Amino acid sequence: MAQRHLDPPTDPTAGPAPTGDALAGYLRAQATEFLRSLRQHRETGAVSGSEDSVDAARALRRSARRISGTLHTFRPLLDTDWSEAMRPELAWLSGTLAREHAYAARLERLLLALHRLSGSAAFPTPSAGPAPRAQTSPDRGNLTVGAAKAGALLDRQLTLARTRAHSAALQALGSSRFHAVADSVAVLASEVPLTPAAATADPRPFAAAADERLCDAVSALPLVTAGHPYNAEALIHGLSPDTAPHPQDAPWHQVRLLLRLHRYAREALYGEEDTALPERGRELGGARVDVRLRSAGQALNRHRDAAEAAAAASSAARTPRIAPATAYALGVLHADQRHEVEAARFAFQQSWQKEAVGTP
Amino acid sequence: MAQRHLDPPTDPTAGPAPTGDALAGYLRAQATEFLRSLRQHRETGAVSGSEDSVDAARALRRSARRISGTLHTFRPLLDTDWSEAMRPELAWLSGTLAREHAYAARLERLLLALHRLSGSAAFPTPSAGPAPRAQTSPDRGNLTVGAAKAGALLDRQLTLARTRAHSAALQALGSSRFHAVADSVAVLASEVPLTPAAATADPRPFAAAADERLCDAVSALPLVTAGHPYNAEALIHGLSPDTAPHPQDAPWHQVRLLLRLHRYAREALYGEEDTALPERGRELGGARVDVRLRSAGQALNRHRDAAEAAAAASSAARTPRIAPATAYALGVLHADQRHEVEAARFAFQQSWQKEAVGTP
């Protein structure tokens, strides 16, 4: 079912083959974007949750991930010591910056789910499409006692975690460790440390190797089961004594990361995707594959978000001295999010299969 | 999507058109079967759960349902006063006899689900196919504390309900009300009270009207939503303050009953289906439709069973002074069974659509 290679039939290159220069240009652009976002983040101040500050942090993470991924995929074309030293630092940075946003998004997801489960018409169901970003926390006026208490408990726990993550991010941005990362990125913005042979080397085999790692990982997924609706797999072990995260989720999370690396490698060689201008010099094949890979990637993001939300609900249920009604609501919520996990796997399987069928 | 008529293209009648005599023969046969089962039930004694006694009670219910359904569908061909008086009595009887079995099956379903949710490999998942009838209650050795306590609570509550239902059934079988029913059935076994015109009348329009009622009810179901996997509809209101049963389930339960009436009407006119001998004088078309209707009916049985199991879990969670871990496990279990409800709707939609597509 899974194809072994993504690139050959869908390679959007109509012009000359990309070289190490394309790669250097991409890294420079991402480094410049990183520095711009950093400046913006400093200017907007560190007010937690201010829209500009959130945007700047997101842009910082975005370029940090792209730099790190590109260094990884094309590492034989780059100064090894330098890029090997830089990658864990970028991972630390984007991980630290991501946490605050993740807790906020998790809380929003769980409160929306509680409203849906309480039959509140005011909030859309996640499965009816992507949930709109709530400007404020949904009110809990029409929840049952158990659901309201569960919502309040999650609110307390995740808001505390978010506040801590915010402090940790501020502390990280003021640390000498961070300044060393920023200095390295500044170097990258002016002079990419390519190996002597890289400028004229063909980088495509490295991108192809990344594709292969992705396809290998996908072919190890239980896609036949995932493609069978209501297979009830995601909730197996839902009451097992092991705490979250579920071991069954790990290969899906891994595919999510490999799919991201695949996407960044394509961006590096063929230019960044620009959904606003789909006609800009891209072939139909490339655009079609982008749409499919994007929906596969979105399914895996949803998979990760739902898995983490389920774990948060189950963790909240272990809070001492909660009322049975609260625990019951958290159990329903946990199972609901594990079904979202299963639904996301089904959605991934559907996207991926379309792709495999679409490219002979 | 739903077709308006089931019969015309799939009518398995290759011989002469059925008459009121066919109907009388069917009713006599069912009445005879009722009396035979009743004798068997008395002979096996009233030991709760003995295999023969369970089989006899099932056979009694089976013929009571068929007699009642046939009286309903073909009531203009039968003595009105007599059949109108008999139907509620048959419904009372089969309802009373069904309860004991239903509680036992519900407990078994819930304990199997708890095992599946605890990651126990010893028990199959319901979605992997029909669960084998467990000879004994599954042990709870490898459940978590919460799941084990939830299992023990459900065991206590449903076993008590089952015991009460058993006593009620025994009491019913000894009552003068029951003896009056048995007397009426004995009359039916020798002389079916047809109207004077019925012997030569065409009973098919009454069967067609039953089909139409079925198709009308199906077309009122939210089949488009149900056919979209993971629509998350069944768990909406999962935490609502209204107690079970869910109002959204009612139209599906209604279709289940109408599908049963449709099946009995076919049996009455064209002979009982015999899955052991599919070649016995049945056309391919008839056999194919039987398989589809059977799978649609099985989906709706599963829908009913899962809905009632979900309600039992949620009702157990309202037991005073239970531990939060117990309540949490019951919440997970409730949501799991509501997802079974959703899965059953999906399965029904798939069977029904196949039928509509298969018969042009």
From TrEMBL, chains A, B:
Coiled coil: none annotated. Transmembrane segments: none annotated. It comes from the Bacteria. InterPro entries: CHAD_dom, CHAD_dom_sf. Pfam families: CHAD (PF05235). Residues 16-357 form the CHAD domain. Residues 1-20 are annotated as: Disordered. This is CHAD domain-containing protein. It comes from Streptomyces avermitilis (strain ATCC 31267 / DSM 46492 / JCM 5070 / NBRC 14893 / NCIMB 12804 / NRRL 8165 / MA-4680).
